[in-house]
Automatic annotation (TrEMBL):
Similarity comment text for this entry: Belongs to the 3-hydroxyacyl-CoA dehydrogenase family.
Binding site for NAD(+): G17, A18, G19, T20, M21, G22, D40, E100, K105, S127, N151, K283
Annotated 3-hydroxyacyl-CoA dehydrogenase C-terminal domain residues: 194-291
GO MF entries: NAD+ binding; oxidoreductase activity, acting on the CH-OH group of donors, NAD or NADP as acceptor
Keywords assigned: NAD, Oxidoreductase
Gene Ontology biological process terms in this record: fatty acid metabolic process
Organism: Amycolatopsis dendrobii
Protein name (record): 3-hydroxybutyryl-CoA dehydrogenase
Gene3D superfamilies noted in UniProt: N-(1-d-carboxylethyl)-l-norvaline Dehydrogenase, domain 2, NAD(P)-binding Rossmann-like Domain
Length: 292
């Protein structure tokens, strides 16, 4: 099937999953003037997402003065919030951001393949799941690509784009053009568990949790301050883990661990304990730190 779309200035972007990432991705594209269809199976996630986008459209320009001041109602007015995957049928490009569970993503792709028009590209936003494997669940492996967007999406200038085994050059080009239309640059890497960023990041975060777990450091704040003040990092690894979501960190480590069968990615027991206790970081109000 020829790749015909991607020529219009404004496209319809399907965003699947309205959690931490889907909320940011929907915000990013709606703020850039695209029409967005945001789909989540949970009505509550969609409600929360609408509130967060309204708040963040007003708030982010205070954090980054280069961002335009937009009318929150106008931005959310470009987003259709829906629990029906069938509403993705008009999408030119889908960015999928559902929970980091391989089986869940594997079940979703045949459904997306059935619903979305043939020209639609599937961008997989995942921390570690294989793009090639998900592409194999569709009849359009050349139009499936990794779009690893960082958190919070409207504030991060760079996207890690992942080329699966069958991803076509045209799909790579189209994906980069779409992100450029939202003011985002991208770097293309090849498919491997955790890609470039999370192969390093998840290991670092997990090791920092081990240092707290083993009592090498007395507190999360001590670990983070060493990274901020000694190495000039903007955030320490434990605050970063809270921002990502400790549940997502654990799931990502499990995917990389399973994929590489390398014990260095085994999740720290303290991480598992925090997740079991429902302390998932910023999104639940408590993780290594407490949040309002
Ligand atoms: P999250 O847990 O905050 O949100 C996931 C959302 O997906 C939930 O609202 C859930 O209801 C929804 N969902 C689950 N199954 C669905 C389905 N079949 N259809 C529609 N919605 C469904 O997770 P998140 O942190 O937003 O992560 C989403 C993806 O992005 C993961 O693959 C993660 O690895 C990746 N990612 C996360 C970060 C981060 O910092 N959190 C950064 C980059 C990439």
């Amino acid at each position: 099937m020829a790749e015909t779309a991607g020529t219009r200035d404004k496209e319809t972007i399907g965003v699947v999953g309205a959690g931490t990432m889907g909320t940011g991705v929907a915000h990013l594209f709606a703020a850039a003037g695209h029409e967005v269809v945001l789909v989540d199976t949970a009505e509550a996630a969609l409600e929360k997402s609408r509130g967060l986008i309204e708040r963040n459209v007003a708030f982010y320009p205070l954090v980054d003065a280069s961002l335009p001041r937009l009318d929150p109602a106008e931005v959310t007015g470009r987003i259709v919030f829906s629990t029906d995957h069938g509403d993705l049928k008009t999408s030119d490009f889908v960015v999928e951001n559902v929970t980091e569970k391989r089986e869940l993503k594997e079940e979703l792709y045949p459904l997306l393949d059935e619903i979305c028009p043939p020209h639609c590209v599937f961008g997989v936003n995942t921390s570690a799941v294989s793009i090639t494997r998900l592409a194999g669940r569709t009849g359009r492996a050349d139009r499936v690509i990794g779009t690893h967007v960082m958190n919070p999406a409207p504030l991060k200038p760079l996207v890690e784009v992942i080329r699966g085994t069958h991803t076509s050059a045209a799909t790579v080009e189209r994906t980069q053009a779409l992100f450029r239309s939202a003011g985002r640059d991208s770097i293309v890497v090849n498919d491997a568990p955790g890609f470039v960023t999370n192969r390093v990041m998840m290991l670092t975060v997990n090791e920092a949790i081990f240092l707290l777990h083993e009592g090498v450091a007395d507190s999360a704040a001590d670990v983070d301050r060493l990274f901020k003040d000694c190495f000039g990092h903007r955030m320490g690894p434990l605050a970063t883990a809270d921002l990502i979501g400790l549940d997502t960190v654990l799931l990502s480590l499990e995917v990389i661990h399973d994929s590489l069968r390398d014990s260095k990615y085994r999740p720290c027991p303290l991480l598992t304990r925090l997740v079991d206790a429902g302390l998932h970081g910023v999104k639940t109000g408590r993780g290594f730190y407490a949040y309002d």
